[in-house]
Description:
There is one protein chain. With 158 residues, this protein is α+β, with helices and mostly antiparallel strands. The protein has a single domain, classed as Nuclear Transport Factor 2, Chain: A (Roll), CATH 3.10.450.50. 20% of the residues lie in helices and 47% in strands. It has 3 helices and 7 strands; from the N terminus they run H-H-E-E-E-H-E-E-E-E. The protein has helices spanning 3-20, 23-27, 57-65, and strands at 30-40, 48-49, 54-55, 74-88, 91-105, 121-138, 141-151. Strands 1, 2, 3, 4, 5, 6 and 7 form a 7-stranded mixed β-sheet that branches. It is globular and about 60 Å long. The mean pLDDT is 93.
Amino acid sequence: MTDKHAIQDVLSQYVRATDERDGDAQAKLFDDNGMIRFFGRSGTEKYQLAGEPVIGAERIRRHMEGFPPRPERTYQHHITTDHLIRVNGAEATMNAQFLVFSSVAAPKPKDGWQAPPGVKGDITLIMIGYYDSDLRKIDGVWKLTRLDVKHSLPVFMG
């Protein structure tokens, strides 16, 4: 696997760990002092930091596990695209666009599903933005050292 593919794979693992709310899997993608920062903006305004940075793999794990449970039958799916990756030896940067969809499954009727066949539920786009990150190759494995989650909408981190 090329470095660029391995770096892109780190982001793929990150968004899947986020979708699954798997703090252990997410924390393993960061170096020991890795950091996530969340930003939001309104229109063309500058990005504004939303909340405090989450620093350190252990805090990143706890941060993910601190999210409230999802409502029943609800799931979210991250999609990333247009990965811009620059590698310079054991250091790299990656910027990618993201879309996040919420899917809410319809409750199964007591008498079972009826025609027409197909997907039963609703899908809604809930977030858009950019992931901007720095990575370092440590013992042959690419790890995130900084991940900025730049939402293209205002963000409140209570």
